[in-house]
Design brief:
Elements: E1 2-6, H1 12-15, H2 17-23, E2 29-32, H3 47-58, E3 63-67, H4 68-73, H5 78-81, H6 90-102, E4 107-111, H7 130-149, H8 154-162, H9 167-192, E5 198-203, H10 211-225, E6 232-236, H11 241-253, E7 259-264, H12 281-291, E8 295-296, E9 305-310, E10 317-318, H13 329-332, H14 336-348, E11 353-357, E12 360-361, H15 366-374, E13 383-385, H16 390-407, H17 412-441, H18 452-467, H19 472-475, E14 478-484, E15 494-499
Parallel strand pairs: 1-2, 1-3, 3-4, 4-5, 5-6, 7-8, 7-9, 9-11, 10-12, 11-13
Antiparallel strand pairs: 14-15
Helix pairs in contact: 2-16, 9-10, 11-16, 12-16, 17-18
Length: 504
């Protein structure tokens, strides 16, 4: 099977992860849009070159997985900062109709995000004024929406009354949100016309109230009105959506329906609302499972593989807090030893187990991985992921597990990459470099330009040192090289990974 792939942006989470999986899958050839024509953070990609890529690949592909944020706006960040008009998108909409008309046998799988509204002041991924007014923009919408749907207490009413945002900034921000929402509605019509075969609308940094929640309700109403509930999924996520849709295209092409049995590390796990999301973990799981073309089953005996979900006990902390002070409910409301022993029991019984490590935000669970390593289980898993949000992790581990199960083996290089990035880097090395290395170099995060080679060198050294403290490293020795920071900040890392053969 051949799939043409237009990712959400140039970062590894959007462009590299699924390519690594596909490279180890004999039944799938994934042809990704060249990184050279994609954008770079706030700089839009070459939309004309992207259109040519789509036209060319449509002639020789079985399916296409397309980020419409990239096609329409030039990338994820440009979708939040652009000054386009509806006329500017005319050719892009026409392109999709042309591709389907000329190549009706090519299945089109697409995604388009709901524009996010972060809680903090930062213009790194938002319009410049978000550095000063971001928190106020978010909070004003949050409280206004809550006032409309529920009610505000006295303190919240006073807070809302005190929020002051310049008119020009408010108008610019809300006009772009209105524009993007109208584009999303237009995309729904493409699904109705059967131009797009399946659409995902991921919510990036979702909250129960505010701009994103307001847009979500409007879009859901349109989905219902157009009777598209089976063709359009809207749920928390973003950077994992390429993994999900490539997997969905693969599953549809080979007429598969993987059966998955999930179990959680804690009693309250299914009902916990994770950081950066707007609904319980179990509800998000249902959406991601269906978006991949799989189904949940009630017993392990029915399943093609087991999905072990590492959840918090009661509340979710950020991964870095493991190095500081872990909330007591991670032990009092969660029995991690029991969770690991269940994983071992399933594996010893001959069942495949994939691990969704969603106990913390922005990194893996050190205690969990330590236990798995001590039981010699890390390389026996079918798949693993533990990065960024719960939804990001879910979409990634499900893709690797479904593709790996169908090929009959784990996608080992991707799994080892996940351990090194999600656990070694995100949870440990990133924090150590920020606290110890950057001060020595005289730089701060988000302003690393002058010392980028030195920072990357320090990361590479520390990653290698930490990985080689694990028992896993004696069984699967690796070489980590070419460390890079794609957006010149510590949040995302890229590196090359070579698994050494015996005798190397």
């Amino acid at each position: 099977m051949r799939i043409a792939f237009l990712p959400l942006d140039e970062r590894p989470c959007n462009s590299k992860y699924i390519q690594m999986m596909a490279d180890d899958t004999d039944k799938l050839t994934l042809v990704s849009c060249p990184l050279s024509i994609l954008g770079k953070q706030k700089e839009p990609g070459d939309r004309q070159a992207i259109a040519r890529f789509i036209k060319e690949q449509a002639q020789i592909s079985d399916a296409m997985v397309l980020s419409l944020d990239t096609l329409f706006y030039g990338g994820l960040i440009p979708s939040r900062t652009h000054h386009l008009t509806r006329k500017d998108l005319t050719e892009s909409f026409a392109l999709l109709r042309e591709v389907k008309a000329k190549h009706p046998q090519v299945a089109l799988y697409a995604s388009i995000t709901l524009m996010r509204s972060p809680t903090y002041n930062s213009a790194v991924e938002e319009p410049d004024y978000y550095a000063q007014y971001g928190s106020a923009l978010h909070r004003r919408a949050y409280l206004s929406d809550k006032k409309t749907r529920e009610q505000l207490d006295e303190a919240e009413q006073k807070e809302l009354a005190k929020i002051v945002i310049p008119k020009a900034i408010l108008e610019d921000y809300e006009a772009r949100r209105t524009f993007n929402e109208a584009v999303n509605v237009e995309v729904l019509k493409l699904v109705k016309e059967k131009i797009i075969d399946f659409l995902v609308i991921p919510q990036d940094d979702a909250r129960p109230f505010g701009y994103t929640a307001i847009t979500q309700r409007r879009i859901v109403a349109q989905i219902t009105a157009l009777d598209l509930e089976n063709k359009v999924n809207i749920y928390p996520g973003a950077d994992e959506v390429g993994n999900t849709l490539v997997t969905r295209a693969y599953v549809d092409f080979y007429q598969l329906e993987p059966k998955i049995y999930p179990f959680f590390a804690s009693t309250l796990g299914p009902s916990i609302v994770p950081l950066y999301e707007d609904r319980p973990m179990l509800e998000t799981l249902k959406y991601h499972i269906r978006a991949c073309g799989a189904q949940l089953v009630e017993t392990a005996g029915e399943a093609d593989f087991i999905l072990a979900i590492d959840a918090p006990g009661k509340i979710m902390q950020r991964a870095r807090e493991q190095l500081e002070q872990v909330d007591v409910t991670y032990t009092s409301y969660r029995n991690l030893n029991d969770f690991v022993l269940k994983i071992r029991t399933y594996i010893e019984a001959g069942q495949e187990v994939a691990l969704c490590d969603s106990a913390y935000g922005n990194g893996g669970d050190l205690s969990l991985v330590k236990r798995l390593d001590s039981f010699d289980l890390l390389d026996k898993l079918l798949a693993y992921a533990g990065w960024n949000t719960n939804a990001n992790t879910l979409g990634t581990v499900l893709a690797a597990a479904i593709l790996g199960h169908d090929t009959g083996h784990s996608l080992l290089r991707h799994m080892i990459y996940r351990y090194i990035e999600d656990v070694c880097y995100q949870t440990v090395v990133r924090q150590v470099v920020q606290v110890k290395e950057l001060p020595k170099l005289g730089v701060v995060d988000y302003n690393l330009e002058k010392k980028l080679p030195e920072v990357c060198g320090a990361i590479q050294t520390r990653l290698s040192e930490l990985y080689h403290t694990w028992h896993l490293s004696t069984k699967i020795p690796v070489t980590i090289s070419a460390v890079a920071l794609p957006w010149r900040r510590l949040f995302e890392v890229d590196f090359d990974l070579q698994i050494k053969k015996a005798g190397q």
